[in-house]
Amino acid sequence: MPRPRDLGIVIGTLPPGPTCSVLDVPGVGLGHATVWRDEPPPPDGRGTARTGVTVLVAADDAYRRPLAAGGAVLNGAGECTGFLTAGEWGTLETPVYLTSTMQLGRVYDAACEIALEHDAGVADDVVIPVVGECDDSFLNDCRRMQVTGDDVRAAHAAALASRGTADAPDQGAVGAGTGMSCLGFKGGIGTASRVTPEGHTVGVLLLTNFGERPRLTVAGVPVGALVPAEPSGPGRPAGSCIGVVVTDAPVDSAGCARLARRIGLGLARTGSTAHHGSGEIFLACSTTVRPDRDGATEPGPRVSGRALDPLFAAVVDATEEAVLASMLAAPTVVGRDGNTSEGLDPAVVTRLLEEHRRG
Predict the structure, then answer these.
(1) Is 302 inside a domain boundary?
(2) Which residues contact 172 (CB under 8 A, 6 or more apart)?
(3) Would residue 195 count as lying in a domain?
(4) Is a pLDDT exceeding 80 seen at residue 254?
(5) Considering the domain boundaries, does residue 246 fall inside one?
(6) How does residue 235 score in pLDDT terms, banded at 50, 70 and 90?
(7) How far apart are the C-alpha atoms of 61 and 291, rounded to whole Å?
(8) First CA to last CA across the chain, in angstroms?
(9) What percent helix, strand, coil does the chain show, rounded to 5?
(10) Residue 304 is assigned to a structural domain of this protein
(11) 46 vs 102, which has greater pLDDT?
(12) Closest Cα to residue 160, out of 62, 29, 67?
């Protein structure tokens, strides 16, 4: 499926990295496990499964050497375990796991098991994995726990294997994004990157599940108002968006919190108004500022103050592109009870943008 730049959609002035994804940040991995089943509804079967798990590994030794981190909340009708600890200590010490709302507990359990397997020291000091969720119940039957520990392990293994690859990661209706909808179309997993003039790489990963079709805006063009109305059917939930920024810039925890907050500006450009019932929860981390487990950090230069401005721009632009990437990569998906989330047709987007430019 095409990405925004394949359609001539250029967001901002900063260049992307080679894969235009979080994988452009050295050492970062991204993996998915997609759960897709068609069975009778409970009690005879498990129902229609359109869900999964996505794992972002920012560093494979994060428990021993945590990453500087910070977070921000635009609207708090959602859940992200480990978020309070990351904000309190200013560190990230586990991968970031993304899934659907009703699967959060299972993913958390598996994340704890993975942490123990990778470092026996976790048993002496415990760990609180970061697990974020969005509601995919429009397409996914959530009356049964659809995700297993094996799914979480598969996504984690895929994330470790993806580090250093030159290939762009799968996006759209994969992993945690399988059952998500965005701005009246199919959404899901989206990612993009930017490189600042100073040579720092900023990657953004989103789980998009928010918004209304009439508000969809692509590179400033009101595409949602120009396409046909949504098919009639049951209404979608207000939705949410979990966003993660990862950068190789040496940014401390306070700076990371400021980077995380800029995800909201990128979402607004695409049409988000952060509904009453949505959870926009954002986290950012630096792969080059590595406090020890007592919070002490090695000496070295930090990017702060006005020097953060290029990183702010990178986050906003990469976020806007990641939203579009999550939609353009996703086909139409039919889920439980025949509910349908329509894929955003790249040809339609291209035509509307060209008409806007000519006009």
Answers:
(1) no
(2) 1, 186, 187, 188, 189, 190, 325, 326, 327, 328, 329, 330, 331
(3) yes
(4) yes
(5) yes
(6) low
(7) 12
(8) 28
(9) 35, 25, 45
(10) no
(11) 102
(12) 29
pLDDT at 231 over 70: no
CATH of the domain at 353: 3.60.70.12
How far, in Å, CA of 147 to CA of 337, rounded?
Answer: 20
Domain containing 67 equals 4-294+309-358
Domain tally, the chain = 1
Strand bridging mode 130-134 / 96-100? parallel
pLDDT band at 40 (very low <50, low <70, confident <90, very high): confident
Half-sphere exposure of 287 (CA within 13 A, CB side): 24
What does DSSP assign to residue 221?
Answer: B
pLDDT digits (tens, 9 = 90+) for 56-93: 999 999 999 999 999 999 999 999 999 999 999 999 99
Task: Give catalytic residue positions.
Answer: 240, 278, 280
Q: What is the pLDDT of residues 274-319, one digit of tens each?
A: 999 999 999 999 999 998 877 777 778 999 999 999 999 999 999 9
C-alpha neighbours within 13 Å on the C-beta side of residue 113 = 13
Residue found by looking up tokens 């945690």 in the block: 176
Whose tokens are 């359109």? That residue is 50
**In this structure, what token pair is assigned to residue 164?**
């250093």
- Structure pTM? 0.97
State the angle between helix axes of 263-270 and 309-328 in degrees (0 to 180), rounded to the nearest 10: 40
| 353: number of Cβ within 10 Å | 18
96: region left, alpha or beta (phi > 0 left; psi from -120 to 50 alpha): beta
